[in-house]
């Protein structure tokens, strides 16, 4: 497994593979890898001739008050996990390599970025879209793999690729969960034992939304009320500490829908202690 530090090394290697007509999969990550990330790498290794993973904690997608400086960094274990999955190369750039002095261009994210996360983290998707487009250029792969765990991010990247004619196939991979249902996340390691229990409220709220639809409920506002009640049930000992949103929206546009007729997606962002967690579920009427 090759470790690439510069954009020149990265671009040259991918072009060398592409010149031999090989398919190449890209798996962008911020490191602190868990089974969710490794499942993306595994899917790419299974589908493409070569896989390159990136490990870069992208500063431009964090607001000043967010957790950039304490974001977990576990490079040795990350490289070991990726080697085991059969990844061909890992791009681990320093921040200057991606944002050299004088860098000032950015991607205006598509309209699907505006609601939900966009309301609570207004600069987040601009940072994500910019770094992902840069990675697509630095590593001109045939495919890129993203997790459904970050559902709105997946919608943003799909729209950007479509709108800007980026020649790459985006592959969505299912959310990997702990056995009790908690979606795996690098941020889960911030949770203490008591918070870890309360974090399960997100999964319970998604279950409740799905069950309500299965029972015939079609009113999105009512389903959102059920999710909120499940998130905050039994007072502060059992519930989450705060809810940024618990919404049921159209699965493609992420726009509000009064009544569910087609596939919808339930999305939640909530804080447990100081840790902000997100999760989602596609729901068919
Ligand atoms: P991150 O390192 O958090 O930026 O995530 C890198 C990629 O891994 C993104 O495409 C995420 O959607 C994906 N990912 C993160 N957690 C999971 C999970 N639990 N299951 C599947 N994919 C995930």
The main pleated sheet reads as: 6 strands, parallel
Structural class: alpha/beta
Average per-residue pLDDT, rounded, comes to: 97
Q: What series of H and E elements makes up the topology?
A: EHEHEHEHHHEHEHHHEEE
N-to-C CA distance: 45 Å
What's the overall geometry? Answer: globular
Low-confidence stretches: none
Q: Count of helical segments?
A: 10
Q: What hetero molecules are in the model? A: adenosine monophosphate
Give the strand line-up of the largest sheet: 1-4-3-2-5-6
* Topology, number of strands: 9
Give the helix level as a range of percent.
Answer: 25-40%
What integer value in Å does the Rg equal? 19 Å
Strand content: 15-25%
What would you say about this model in short?
37% of the residues lie in helices and 19% in strands. The chain has 285 residues and is an alpha/beta fold. The strands form 2 sheets. A 6-stranded parallel β-sheet has the order 1-4-3-2-5-6, with helices on both faces.
